[in-house]
């Protein structure tokens, strides 16, 4: 039994469990050789020994090697598959995330637009696998990881151990036929149906009558085609992706898990108008303001409206230039005109002075 601190393959230290998949516990581990954090899962093997156990072990090793060949941004990268005693371990990239099943149980259903955008990402990853000659075989909400940064990742690619959830298994696979790309289309349809309706389309056992969708909206017709009982009549994965893109074309809704930070958006429409003062009059050389005045009694009404000429702009305004100052002229000294009255006055004063002098001489001699 694995526990914290166990060294797997002489290299990987199990630190703590971070989830539970179909095949058991997923561990957060540390690669002591490359000094990086990874995720590790022990693949499911039947209990017992003998030839049957060896065959199961060899099959698990081959499934791990096939999964390591898948390269896609929406698929968990498998770094290695290694034996450890009687166990077989998958070494995978570590992505902080939660399964879609956990997400739905905690946050409820997705909108049809969100589910369609999710289907585009999952469908592209599945189409890449099909082009490489692989099928997922166990697609369900538990094998879809919603990353904390908003990404989507498929896990358990091509891993058959533990048994798939019957609610998402294509009917032909449930009858014993080998899984095909058409079976992945059915599983994707059942997964998206659960995302918008909250329950699987054919019940938890996959054997009940189809429940008509009530919340699928624009996704309804695409889901019905993906969930057809006859695999021949189902659309291909590429057609499914094109259908999802047509549904979401021109729409702004995006699938953002609540673990990613919310992105605020500005409301659509014109910006709000702020209160302001009275409207400003138009400007320009042609504008003439009319000033209405009330004339006094008896004043004619004509001309009561005063026309104020427009104020020229800076380029048109005439700059004030003071008048030139004439040069100073030298004053002519003692060149003032003398009137006749002034001469008489001066003569009278002189005469009075002379008379005074004569009188003083007569009295003091």
Automatic annotation (TrEMBL):
Segments passing through the bilayer: 343-364
Pfam families: Pkinase
The keyword Hydrolase belongs to this UniProt entry's keyword annotation: no
Keyword ATP-binding recorded: yes
GO molecular function per UniProt: protein serine/threonine kinase activity
Enzyme Commission numbers on file: 2.7.11.1
PROSITE patterns named in the record: PROTEIN_KINASE_DOM
Enzyme class: transferase
Protein kinase domain location: 12-256
Keyword terms: ATP-binding, Kinase, Membrane, Nucleotide-binding, Transferase, Transmembrane, Transmembrane helix
InterPro entries hit by this protein: Kinase-like_dom_sf, Prot_kinase_dom
Listed name of the protein: Serine/threonine-protein kinase
Organism: Amycolatopsis melonis
Source taxonomy: Bacteria, Bacillati, Actinomycetota, Actinomycetes, Pseudonocardiales
